[in-house]
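Backbone geometry:
***
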Amino acid sequence: MTNRTISAIIFTLLLTFESSLTAMAFVQASVQDDPLLTIGGKPVDKDELIYLLSKGNKSEPGTLGMSRDEFDENLELFINYKLKVREAEAQELDQSEEFRREFESFRENIKAPFLIRNSLEEGELRKAYSRMQEIIRASHILLKFPPNAGKEDSLIVLRMALKIKEEVKNGGSLNDLAVEYSDDPSAQVNKGDLGYFTALQMVQPFEDAAFSLQPGQVSDPVLTSFGYHIINVKDRQPNPGQVRVSHILVRIEDSSPNGEDLAKRKVADIYNEIQKESTIWEDIVKNYSEDPASSQKGGMLPWFSVGSMIPEFEMAAFSLTEIGEVSAPVRTRYGYHILRLEGKKPLESFESMEESIRSSILRDSRSTMIQSQVMAIQKSRYNFDENEANVAKLRTELNNTTKNGFALAMSEKNLSGIQLFTLKGKSYIAQDLADFMAAEEISIKNKTSTFDAWYERFTASELNKAEEADLAANNKEYRMLLKEYRDGILLFSLMNEEVWQKGLLDSVAQKAFYEKNITKYQWKGRVNAFIVKVLDMTQLDAARKLLQGKSLSDELITTFESSYESSNSLAYQTETGTIEYSEHPVLSKADLNKDYQELEVNGHLHIVVFGDRIKPGPKKFEETRGPVIRDYQEYLDNTLVESLRKKYPIKINTKAKEETFIALNQ
């Protein structure tokens, strides 16, 4: 069951078998000195009523506030709601494993929008989409670190990067220097030219540096997981969105000494053939393209955006402007291509791209950056104080252990009681970390950093708990939402047991209720009738011939309907059955004493053939089982409320009630 479904159920249950709640705005600032009411001695705060009423607020700005009568009605509904929650608690439905599992699942989803991480993620999402409005063309030189590089090795690489930057600054060509120095294997072919790209297509440090540069500018050395980069931005343009092309591919036979010339001549011949007016593109593709994946589909490729294809192919595709326009042959490492433009569309809206952007962010280094920022904010906010000397000692002593051997090694070295940190005034020791590791079912494969890996995970877990506890204690909106879901699950469970399932499954009780209330389930006067609405007046005589002077029967109806369905199915509309005539739009105007008659109703002629007339009388149980079940469930609900009002004394605080009314009308 989804959160949205439960939320709807919760609010609907407030209205079950009652009139609608009138919703007003939720007033944040309200006095919290006295409860609004007590139910069986348990206090209920007025803010809860204000919050729940606000959930269904549909009033327009400037409309009048809530009347006294509306307020009193809503208060009674609220009391009924809280009585049911109180009874669910008395039955210990909140202690069941099913409740705990369901509520915990909801809590995980509910808290997400309130967490520090959510606001940081939202910032990264917006920043990424903002950057996506542009595409950047850049060249770079990459200097990798040697295997198992130490600090001195890193400094040597950095000094080399600074030297190259100085050469570029003094007029050297970055592209020529890329051929000479770059450790990027593609530099020997593209001279460091990366083509166009946009946000989320490069590692984050590289992207950050590139988007900070204007055309012509060269970066200082930029450190990424690949090494140091020198970046030169060539161009910045608005993002053209996505393009779709079909293509013809002529491969170059590498084993042939004149493979390049042969491919070039072949693609030139194909290009000349395409220029002829009689040429059909799909036929040319099928006959000559050497791309097996697309040649039988007219050369059609999926939609793609900047940064998704090799630069030469991409630039040729985005340079096409008119649908159906064909490019000159384009050379890539795959061979020669001829492209035809099939479609263009702009960058999608943020709402459309939000989830794909989020997925990309969570897969790259931004996720680690966000987590580091979250922990930094949590540590500051919740008074985290690490015992650096003790942590360093534990790192030295325990980093080379395994997860399974951690507790034993810690005990043998007499380190169990050593303090790790304090959080919100509470001290955490090494034994707490060991207990956390034992409870976790996962393993972290890092033979040389066991302590570091698990210590970071443990710290993050405790900081997250501190943040959630802070939310529950100090964030009113979160606290109210959590209570709404908690009480809603209890309410659903109680109603399901005491009202819905009982009313649905107890057929004996249903029949007893039906017999006791038989006067509610009565047929009005009915008549067996066949009604023909004439849509084509040229067919009126044909209908008369078939129906006039005939007795109503199944055979008559079948004969009439089969006579026109195959030849003129739009000539008539028909209705048949045993019908309560007093409120029927046609039969209410008919003379029940005539077996055949023609009536003008709402601009159409109707032919009516009557059969048996049936006097008013009780409905059979099978004929009205649905309404009986609905009414019986309503009866069970009302009975439940009456019994709970006797079981749990209700005391309303007059002063708090008045404050609530005033708050709802501010």
About this structure: The longest helix spans residues 476-505. Residues 1-32 have pLDDT under 50 and may be disordered. The CA atoms of residues 240 and 346 lie 6 Å apart.
